[in-house]
Amino acid sequence: MNRAVVPISGGLDSTVILSDVSKNHNFDEIHCVTFDYGQKHKDCEVECAKYQAQRHATTHKIINLSFFKDISGISSLTNSDIAVAKTRDVLGDAQTVNYVPFRNQMILSICCAYAESIGATTVFHGAAQVDSQAGYWDGSTEFLYAFNNITALNRKHRILVEAPLITRSKADIIKLGIDCDVDFSQTWTCYEG
């Protein structure tokens, strides 16, 4: 059986990936995972993720990582005392204040562990072109390559992490979402709420 794991935040990018995987790929099962890592807008994000997972008739797990807020207090997404920076204002920064330390690596590691336990061969990563431009090293093609080199060390169960949006602009992602009939009204894309 061909299975995939799709981490879904309830935002634009992960929703488009889920819709694309559901519509255009030949997976027998799609397993969605949403993370509560103590982010400011988790309630809205989780509700949108639930809606999208249900819309695509996938299994959906919500994993509590709320402890992460206690160890990642330098991010505007987990610390309410830090203002959220707009993407246009941080393009080119080495690392924006919106970056959550090692979040993507942690989330993808958990998704790969889940994938191995259910026999899935593919995990999707919602990184987009703007992520790397806005200082998210863990949204870059270099990160994807390095992460896949790590998962390739698994001697028994090979898991490939794919990031189909990593070279796409937001406009291209929205066009793909339209082609995949995404219900954008049920997404939560803004860091500020």
End-to-end separation: 39 Å
Strand content: 5-15%
Distinct helical segment count:
8
Low-confidence region ranges: none
Mean pLDDT: 90
Listing every helix as H and every strand as E from the N terminus to the C terminus, the arrangement reads EHEHEHHHEHHEH
Rg from alpha-carbon coordinates: 16 Å
Main beta sheet: 5 strands, parallel
Strands of the widest sheet, in order across it, are: 3-2-1-4-5
- Which structural class is indicated by helix and strand composition? alpha/beta
Fraction of helical residues: 25-40%
Shape: globular
How many individual β-strands? 5
What is the multimeric organization of the chains shown? Answer: single chain
Which terms summarize this structure?
single chain; 193 residues; alpha/beta; 5-stranded parallel beta sheet; 8 helices; 5 strands
Explain what this protein looks like in three dimensions.
The chain is an alpha/beta fold. The chain is 40% helix and 13% strand. The protein contains eight helices and five strands, in the order βαβαβαααβααβα. It has a five-stranded parallel sheet, sandwiched between helices. Helix 1 links the parallel strand 1 and strand 2. The termini are far apart.
SSE layout and pairing:
Elements: E1 3-7, H1 12-24, E2 29-36, H2 42-55, E3 59-64, H3 68-71, H4 87-90, H5 103-118, E4 122-124, H6 129-133, H7 141-151, E5 160-162, H8 170-179
Parallel strand pairs: 1-2, 1-4, 2-3, 4-5
